């Protein structure tokens, strides 16, 4: 999330009239909370035979097994959606795709991108993000395909901001060859491990402890949903070098260090640059503050709401760089760093 030290005169305090306006605004936007995936545990699709033939592994959390497809591990229950998305999703030229590995700054990037794109449509005092989680404002494509809810995506007005966790090679040619820009964010792997481990240990369906040592072991083996992380990052990184106008490659740590610069880079890339007047009036700073960790975390929608076993507050823990130091031994950190160095060897990329 954004740097909490950035301040402005913006306030999230609302009155009953604004609350009503906010509800009408959400209704008019055609956005809605994402439906629960609870009933989808179990395969029932035309991809069932293929999926059942794939190598399987107990996932983390253990209640959700993962399967290996094209060298990447995916949630078994989500694979029908990923395959259907690859086969059927057709982007609009005005679409903007937000991509990332799990727990790499996805929630923050979604909030920022959505707010930048729709800054002339919604005021800060009457905004969808006040009533909906960022993952509702920027729906994950494969999730809705898995729920056979993909028609919902077609009801959203342009320009749509859509999200995905799939690797670049799983994006269809209709996406990679389209005009829609892709914004990708990556994060230091050790912080990714810590953030994801904290999230999965909070699932209500997790009926036995999931040791942190086991999480590191599986992560280093690449046996994590959407993993291995290094391959995921490198696919987007190398393609961003080949197509810099198509893919904006961001680092979470750099965004946290200078969110103002990051927001301006993001706005320029997606074709929504700030005018001199907007910058003079402090709009960039207001957007950074509006999408900051503290502001979003303290909204009622992100404190109390959620879908199924996934509560919205799972997406808001600490949002700091280097939290891995509070969890890993020197031996653990060295192990992850060694694998990271091996995986990124000769790629030109460093975290």
TrEMBL record:
Basic and acidic residues bias: start-end ranges: 17-27
Record's compositionally biased regions (Polar residues): 1-16
Enzyme class: transferase
Domain of life the protein comes from: Eukaryota
The UniProt record lists the keyword Transferase: yes
Keywords: Transferase
Record carries keyword Chaperone: no
InterPro entries named in the record: P-loop_NTPase, Sulfotransferase_dom
UniProt GO MF annotations: sulfotransferase activity
Enzyme Commission code(s) on record: 2.8.2.-
Sulfotransferase domain location: 93-348
Signal peptide feature range: none
Residue numbers spanned by region Disordered: 1-29
Pfam family for this entry, one: Sulfotransfer_1
Similarity comment: family membership: Belongs to the sulfotransferase 1 family.
Identification of the protein by name: Sulfotransferase
